[in-house]
Specification:
Blueprint (H helix, E strand, L loop, with lengths): L1 E5 L3 H11 L7 E5 L2 H10 L5 E4 L8 H11 L5 E5 L4 H9 L4 E4 L4 H12 L7 H5 L7 H6 L2 H11 L4 H8 L3 H15 L4 H11 L4
Parallel strand pairs: 1-2, 1-3, 3-4, 4-5
Helix pairs in contact: 2-3, 8-10, 9-10
């Protein structure tokens, strides 16, 4: 797998590279210190598996670079990694074509989960986007969850493990696991703690 990290802080690039190498053997890391250098790297290596882009950099900043990368390399998945936790920045990045938005405050496991999600063709949306909203949950989330998945989500929010949920709802544990995965995808989260936060904050559960 090949990744391109675009960030103006060498220490941050080193840290991100170290985490990405935990994805397995054969991970190739390309680096760039600003958007213009990132575009030059993409000209030489046009098909990385994923681009990790900082939103606020010297030189060509992240959002203009994101737009330019999407125009020139529309098939390349791009994950924004930023110190900003402003939900408005998240929405701007996703609207510009990012496949996900990862705050730099996120832990290693969250970062790996987000990268895997983007590599699988999904979109990673951090819980802070939902938590930053005061309105009711987006219609796409409400309609994406089936009644059965809502029942599973309610029990996840009660702290029940898959085995107990399966017993209560009279279904196989593997089926519960599949429902939990679908719920995570619909909410844009990667673990139970995030799912509980998002569900409660957005009013999906009481």
């Amino acid at each position: 797998m090949q990744f391109l990290i675009i960030d103006d802080h060498p220490i941050v690039r080193d840290g991100l590279a170290a985490v990405l190498r935990q994805l397995g053997t054969g991970v190739d890391i390309l680096e760039a210190g600003d958007g213009a250098s990132g575009l030059a790297q993409l000209a030489a290596h046009p098909a990385p598996d994923c681009v990790l882009l900082d939103l606020r950099m010297t030189g060509m900043a992240g959002l203009p670079a994101l737009v330019e990368i999407r125009q020139q390399h529309p098939a390349v998945p791009l994950l924004v990694v930023s110190s900003s936790e402003d939900p408005a920045d998240v929405r701007r990045a996703l609207a510009a074509g990012a496949r996900g938005y990862l705050p730099k405050s996120a832990g290693r496991n969250t970062m790996l989960a987000a990268v895997r999600l983007v590599l699988a063709g999904e979109v990673y949306v951090p819980p802070l986007v939902v938590l930053g909203q005061t309105e009711t949950p987006p219609a796409r989330v409400q309609t994406a969850l089936t009644p059965r998945q809502l029942e599973v989500l309610e029990r996840v929010c009660l702290g029940l493990p898959n085995r107990e949920i399966a017993q209560q709802l009279d279904m196989h544990e593997k089926t519960v696991k599949a429902h939990v995965t679908a719920v995570f995808r619909a909410l844009g989260v990667v673990n139970r703690a995030q799912a509980i936060e998002s569900a409660r904050a957005s009013g999906l559960v009481g």
